[in-house]
Design goal:
Elements (H helix, E strand, L loop, with lengths): L2 E8 L4 H12 L4 E7 L4 E6 L3 H10 L3 E4 L10 H4 L3 H29 L9 H18 L2 H11 L5 H23 L4 H10 L3 H24 L2 H9 L3 E6 L2 E6 L8 E4 L8 E6 L2 E4 L1 H4 L5 E3 L4 E2 L4 E2 L4 E7 L5 H14 L5 H28 L4 H14 L2 H21 L2 E3 L2 H7 L4 E5 H5 L5 E7 L5 H12 L5 H12 L8 E6 L3 E6 L2 E6 L1 H5 L6 H12 L3 E7 L2 E9 L6 H10 L3 E5 L4 H11 L3 E3 L4 H11 L5 E5 L5 H6 L2 E5 L12 E3 L5 H36 L11 H20 L27 H8 L7 E7 L4 H12 L4 E7 L4 E6 L5 H9 L4 E5 L1
Parallel strand pairs: 15-22, 15-24, 22-23, 24-25, 25-26
Antiparallel strand pairs: 1-3, 1-4, 2-3, 5-6, 5-7, 7-13, 8-11, 8-13, 9-10, 9-12, 14-26, 16-21, 17-18, 18-19, 19-20, 20-21, 27-29, 27-30, 28-29
Length: 846
């Protein structure tokens, strides 16, 4: 079985390093997938390779590796997010700047502007002092040289290589010149001192790059602020009851089954179930919902939520890394670690960037020597090319935006499972909404009460309440809930008897009471045409009428319906404003679906669709553009899986729900719009970052090379180093702007210019085909012999998923099984042939 392990990587300085580590680890036997994050200096590896082999491969490539605390893609620890690099860089920077100021005083102030120098310190002495000060600064920043030349030895030059070559060549050339100064006449010596010494350039290069690295490190640390704030929510201790006594213990010691108490104002320590007490609990930390939720015995509570009023006694059910909070943190981290498709362009460029720049610098040097620029000038141009080139901005352009975007989503109860889902969601052109639980509340409620002539509404409800209290049917629960809400007391009715699909009967004092559908009631009571007409009108509005009688006397009618959520109409309007066509998908009859569709304002309706038919609808809609499917993640799982982007809405604390690329904690349809806005804004920031990273290098490398010298446009190595140091910082700060983005504000919504509001996605004939789709067995479990490893699993999975009608296949060589999810009917013989063509034996299909 393929396992996922997480490692800390040290020694990476740019995108070229990241690409090299990914390449060498991907080549280790048993590794099926490797993703390296320059942003978090971490690596996720999937496959059966041992940690020892992986660490050895990384070390052989010139970097350091260690298994992360927890050892896998499990809990996120403080160590994962702790910024250890910025303090080191600040110390380096302070020392470098102090020495650089002294160096610049002598090299610029004394030598060029005649500032006072210590008594007895002549020009040659000043030059020697410059060499010493510059050398000390290079030693302080020796990491550039160690990392850069180690990378060259391992045939994977990186950004540090460029810096080390630029600063190193400057210092070596200046040192050679210094020796020459002591062997020539004073006039020639002065000329050499003024024109061919680059000690201050060497020192300035590494100092300015360190400035950029410090700013970059600081801004990179800020991108994990959302994760850090979530981790701070987790209580450090819990008050548990042991031997009848309350005892405060560290959170790590709480076990499943422990009884704990939470007082008003305290955060809930672990996920659990309320045993006693009632309170309002603020869940905004997890769901983004500002309105507190009332909790009573039997209700679930989650870690990090705040108890606002009463005392709660709870039983621990999920502790440690299994809590909802830990799952959210882990999901945000893993999504940030995964590669977005748009990042592949930058990755490809980064892999060849540094060698290309080194080649360009060499060519520039040779050309200037040939055309008579002279050694000092040719060297200056080559050094400037080396230090101005910046692969870091390319490597950080996408991951910093993804990290911040995921953090913003988490704070708003929107969880993107992967970077790809964050990128793709905003590109959706068609939104398919499941009706029940997505557009509507998913629980029937009483909408109308029609007492018969001579019967009061209270009398009808008392008797209906008494009858329906004996039924577990959702419609019956709607009646009882309504009666309880308006404080109705039921009459006493005995001998309750349920008739499934029809209704319920009961008796009191020899009188029979009935409640149910029209046909069931008509057996004992005559229903007037006026009531029948009213019933038909209610049915046309998508409501279900319930009839009630006392003996043969008609008591009245109560209408029950699954009503729209409060924000559904507004959310659908916002989806249209975002340029999406909205399709409602439901198993309800055409009449009921049409009424809900009319109320909500959707563009198209597909009714009478069974679960297997939902997948067929999604497949057809994908012919018109990228499809976003929104459902509850349970009975919609196949449709969510097959859509370009699946959103599981109303997950609550079940954030680990398998179906769906995006998990929405709340049941608000407005969060779908918020997720799309966040996706589009994040993608915009990524495009801006990539544009800046590419255009920066495209513009400045030619200037550094001296292409525009005749136009009077030149660049010194010091300016090149400053520009390089600011490029990565700019990319990071641009990404941090996402923290200011208001996900629920529709004012900036724009409809694509090519959007056709009049386009019909499905004609009536196609809709009727979908409505006629018959229910089929949607899964097959295949018993397979001959699978030995993860590669076997991958081979079988690929073969099965290539079969028309197969939505997905989960293969395990350890269990010897393949669980196949079907989107349409596929014969067992076809499945068997697909596997056996790969030389594995199928022993049975269930």
């Amino acid at each position: 079985m393929s396992d996922t392990s997480r490692y800390k990587i040290t020694g990476m300085s740019c995108a070229a390093c990241q690409a090299h580590v990914e390449k060498v680890v991907s080549g280790v036997s048993g590794v099926t997938k490797c993703e390296v994050s320059l942003l978090t200096n971490s690596m996720n590896v999937e496959g059966s390779a041992s940690p020892e082999d992986i660490i050895k491969a990384v070390e052989n490539a010139g970097y350091g590796a260690s298994v992360s605390e927890g050892g896998s893609a499990g809990a996120v620890t403080d160590d994962d997010l702790k910024d250890t690099e910025t303090p080191k860089l600040i110390r380096r920077l302070i020392l470098s700047v102090i020495l650089l100021l002294v160096l610049m005083y002598f090299s610029m102030g004394v030598m060029m502007f005649g500032w006072p120098a210590p008594v007895g310190l002549v020009h040659t002495g000043i030059v020697v002092l410059e060499a010493v000060l510059s050398g000390i600064i290079l030693i302080i920043n020796r990491k550039f040289f160690i990392s850069g030349f180690k990378a060259v030895i391992h045939k994977a030059p990186n950004m540090d290589t460029l810096v080390a070559m630029g600063a190193g060549v400057s210092y070596i050339y200046s040192s050679v010149t210094l020796i020459r100064i002591f062997n020539v006449c004073m006039e020639d010596a002065m000329d050499l001192m003024m024109n061919e010494l680059y000690f201050e350039s060497a020192a300035m290069i590494v100092t300015l790059i360190t400035v950029g690295k410090t700013l970059e490190s600081y801004s990179k640390g800020r991108t994990t602020d959302a994760l850090k704030s979530l981790m701070k929510l987790a209580p450090k201790s819990a008050t548990i009851i042991r031997d009848g006594q309350e005892t405060e213990v560290p959170i790590e010691e709480v076990k499943v089954g422990d009884i704990y108490v939470v007082r008003p104002g305290e955060n809930i320590p672990v996920d659990g179930t309320v045993l006693s007490g009632s309170s309002a609990v603020g869940e905004s930390a997890l769901t983004g919902e500002s309105i507190p939720v009332d909790k009573e015995p039997g209700d679930k509570v989650s870690a990090a939520c705040t108890n606002l009023s009463g005392l709660l006694t709870c039983r621990a059910e999920r502790v440690g890394e299994d809590t909802t909070l830990s799952e959210i943190i882990r999901m945000v981290r893993d999504a940030s670690m995964s590669k977005a498709p748009i990042a592949r362009i930058a990755d490809k460029v980064s892999g060849i960037f540094v060698p290309s720049v080194m080649g360009i610098a060499l060519i520039v040097f040779v050309i200037w020597m040939i055309i008579g620029g002279g050694l000092p000038y040719a060297l200056t141009r080559a050094i400037t090319v080396l230090v101005v080139s910046c692969p870091c901005a390319l490597g950080l352009a996408t991951p910093v935006a993804i990290m911040v975007g995921n953090g913003v989503g988490a704070k708003n109860g929107i969880l993107f499972k992967t970077s790809a889902s964050l990128e793709e969601a905003g590109r959706s052109r068609i939104a398919v909404l499941d009706k029940t639980g997505t557009l509507t509340k998913g629980e029937p409620v009483v909408t109308d009460v029609f007492p018969a002539e001579g019967i009061t509404e209270e009398d009808l409800l008392k008797k209906a309440y008494a009858l329906e209290a004996g039924s577990e049917h959702p419609l019956a629960k709607a009646v009882t809930a309504y009666a309880e809400e308006i404080k109705i007391s039921p009459v006493k009715i005995n001998d309750l008897r349920v008739f499934p699909g029809n209704g319920i009967t009961g008796s009191a004092d020899g009188v029979e009471y009935r409640g149910g559908n029209e046909r069931f009631i008509s057996e004992k009571c005559t229903i007037s045409d006026e009531v029948k007409n009213a019933s038909s009108k209610l049915a046309s509005e998508g409501k279900t009428p319930l009839f009630f009688t006392e003996s043969d006397k008609f008591l009245g009618m109560i209408a029950v319906s699954d009503v729209l959520k409060e924000d559904s109409v507004r959310a659908i309007s916002e989806l249209k404003g975002l340029g999406l066509r909205v399709v409602m998908l439901t198993g309800d009859n055409e009449l009921t679906a049409a009424e809900i569709g009319k109320q909500s304002g959707v563009d198209e309706i597909v009714s009478g669709v069974l679960p297997s038919g939902k997948e067929a609808v999604i497949k057809k809609l994908r012919e018109h553009g990228k499809v976003l499917m929104v459902g509850d993640g349970i009975n919609d799982a196949p449709a969510l899986t097959i859509a370009d982007t699946g959103m599981a809405i109303g997950a609550g604390t079940d954030v680990a729900i398998d179906a769906g690329d995006v998990v929405l904690m709340k049941s608000s349809l407005s969060d779908v719009c918020a997720a799309l806005r966040l996706s589009r804004k994040t993608l915009t920031v990524i495009h801006e970052n990539l544009f800046w990273a590419f255009i920066y290098n495209l513009l400045l490398i030619p200037i550094a090379a001296g292409v525009f010298t005749k136009a009077g446009l030149q660049m010194s190595p010091m300016f090149g180093a400053a520009a390089m140091s600011l490029s990565s910082f700019t990319v990071c700060m641009n990404a941090l702007r996402l923290n200011l983005f208001r996900t629920h504000n529709p004012s900036g919504d724009r409809m694509p210019s090519d959007f056709d509001r009049e386009l019909k996605l499905l004609d009536n004939e196609e809709k009727s085909v979908f409505s006629d789709v018959k229910e089929i067995n949607m899964t097959r479990t295949m018993n397979i012999e001959g699978m030995m490893c993860a590669h076997c699993e991958a081979s079988v999975k690929k073969a099965l998923e290539a079969v028309e009608g197969v939505a997905s296949a989960e293969v395990s060589h350890e269990k010897g099984t393949a669980v196949v999810a079907l989107s349409s009917e596929v014969s067992d013989d076809v499945l068997k042939k697909a596997v056996e063509d790969k030389d594995y034996k199928v022993t049975g299909i269930e």
